[in-house]
Specification:
Number of strands: 19
Structural class: alpha+beta
Largest sheet: 8 strands, antiparallel
Bound molecules: flavin-adenine dinucleotide
Strand content: 15-25%
Distance between the termini: 40 Å
């Protein structure tokens, strides 16, 4: 089956008829740089743009949802890939799709859900392209069972610096460098993805409140907790101490078929709460709702993408309009926490809504002010819960106006040399830049804490990491650099991030 899914009509603002000089930022809105933007609509046009790029090179860009500078290239070329957005083939029996790299996950969901399929890994924003999802090796709340995005890619087509179109298969160096490789091995033109079978377009979600960080980590690691044992090796401990860490150290590959149990877990932490409330959280556990969970009327059309009869997305307090100060952010967190159910089971939600930040879209429309925000996301291994606690404490005591931060668990890492997920805990927070002098040294200190715990920060979100910290965080960095030197000796593929970190 072939589906023409060109999105040009519906998202006209994403397309550019003329190559133009533009100022670009990541989703965080920080550190704008100017580049020549190309809007190729075919692989040949991508090739021409890459060949024609000058001394400052070129980098691919998807929907610009990464928060840092990974898809920027000051003074060089940026290839807006959203013009290559066709689904080339779909095997609706086997659940395999071949699509161009610029198609968004949202578009895939719209096409796939009515057929009973879903992307195997969905990040918090479905406005992410397939190319961006591979280049950042994105993760979702089902990481312990499903791994990250590239685990489900069975092949990809890459345009390399010599102008060749190569097929990269899992198990090869080219694939492993490209998975999470931030566009630096070449431009991903298309990919073949294995999909997840779903019976309905809804999630069945349980919500709990955790009074503090210990309570939260205990709930997340208690035996039988969704994701606690699915491929992570964790789950026998009940607290933040060594037992959870020791058992998790044996993290292995997810069990075959574990994806189908599909537990999704995400906790939202109030990072402004201190004292006995430090780390108080709202924990969501979800699974794909089976047909039997739907009300009788809904069972007639269980796979409708946006069913009119299903509940609205999770109700949440709306953050105030405009830039937010400390008091308003603290009030938002308080109201959000107190109005969350203490314990509620079986709530039906739209699939893409699971894992969305409290406050949703409103949250991202100007509340961080004109200077934007830094998304600080790090991972530390099981057994490093004290480092996690110290970071939560430091942020709480700093007193930034910060909205609920996202804590999830990672299972086994994938083969990507620069992939972020590694077994353990990951915490992502958004810190406003405005009025916060001293944010950079503060984050440098957090980097030191993370590195000392054997952890890493997420490069796809980063806009300020210092290069010295990198090698300890990404042990396969040298291999990545060596492959790049081999493949792309003139460093045609270059970004602000790659220049800053000498990737
Ligand atoms: C609200 C929100 C929630 C999010 N939640 C999550 C989450 O839960 N998990 C997660 O992992 N991430 C999450 N993210 C981050 C986001 O999903 C990723 O950073 C993703 O890479 C963005 O995709 P994009 O298409 O916008 O790519 P861009 O941001 O434009 O680019 C990201 C990287 O991909 C490269 N790239 C893009 N297209 C190509 C291509 N065709 N070929 C080669 N390289 C390419 C770019 O060069 C760049 O290095 C979230 C972001 C937002 C805004």
């Amino acid at each position: 089956m072939s589906v023409d899914t060109a999105e040009h009509g519906s998202h006209a603002h994403d397309y550019y008829d003329d190559d133009s000089v533009v100022s670009l930022t990541g989703r965080g809105g920080t550190a704008p740089t100017t580049a020549l933007r190309f809007g190729p609509r075919s692989p040949d046009e991508v090739c021409a743009a890459v060949r024609g790029s000058g001394a400052r090179g070129a980098i691919a860009r998807g929907l610009g949802r990464s928060c840092g500078d990974a898809a920027q290239n000051a003074g060089g070329s940026v290839l807006d890939m959203t013009g290559l957005d066709r689904i080339r083939a779909l095997d609706a029996n086997a659940g395999v799709v071949v699509c161009e790299a610029g198609v968004s996950l949202r578009r895939l969901m719209e096409v796939l859900l009515p057929l009973g399929w879903y992307p195997p890994v969905a990040p918090g924003s479905a406005r992410t392209t397939v190319g961006g999802a591979i280049a950042a090796d994105v993760h979702g709340g089902n990481h312990p069972a499903a791994g990250s995005f590239t685990r489900h890619v069975s092949s990809l087509e890459l345009l390399t610096a010599d102008g060749e179109r190569r097929t990269a298969l899992p198990g090869t160096r080219l694939f492993d460098a490209t998975a999470g490789g931030l566009g630096l091995t070449g431009v991903i033109l298309s990919a073949t993805l294995r999909l997840r079978r779903v019976g309905t377009s809804l999630m069945r979600v349980d919500t709990e409140r955790a009074a503090d960080l210990d309570d939260l980590l205990g709930r997340l690691t208690e035996p039988g907790a969704a994701g606690a044992g699915a491929g992570t090796g964790a789950g026998t401990g009940t607290g933040t101490g060594a037992s959870a860490g020791a058992s998790a150290a044996a993290a292995g590959a997810p069990a075959a078929g574990a994806e189908h149990a599909a537990p999704y877990t995400v906790a939202w932490i109030d990072l402004m709460a201190r004292g006995t409330a430090l780390g108080r959280s709202v924990l969501l556990r979800g699974e794909h709702a089976p047909l039997s969970a739907l009300p009788a009327r809904a069972r007639r059309r269980p796979l409708t993408h946006r069913p009119p009869w299903s509940p609205a997305d999770a109700p949440a307090p709306v953050p105030p309009a405009g830039p937010v100060g400390r008091a308003a952010a603290a009030l938002f967190n308080e109201v959000w926490y107190r109005t969350a159910p203490r314990a509620r089971t079986g709530e039906l939600r739209h699939l893409p809504a699971f894992g969305r930040a409290p406050g949703g879209t409103v949250r991202r429309s100007g509340i961080y002010g004109r200077d934007g925000f830094v998304r600080y996301q790090f991972a530390v291994g099981y057994g490093q819960e004290e480092a996690l606690r110290r970071i939560v404490e430091r942020v709480a005591h700093r007193g930034c106006p910060v909205f609920p931060a996202e804590l999830t668990r990672f299972g086994a890492g994938g083969p990507g040399w620069l992939s972020f997920p590694t077994p353990g805990w990951t915490l992502a927070m958004e810190l406003p830049v405005a009025g916060r002098s001293g944010l950079a040294p503060f984050l440098d200190e957090l980097d030191e804490e993370v590195a000392a715990a054997g952890g890493r920060v997420c490069l796809a979100q980063d806009s300020r990491l210092r290069p010295e910290a990198l090698a300890a965080m990404y042990p396969r960095l040298a291999e990545f650099r060596a492959l790049r030197a081999e493949l792309d000796p003139r460093a045609v593929f270059t970004s602000d991030l790659s220049r800053r970190l000498s990737l």
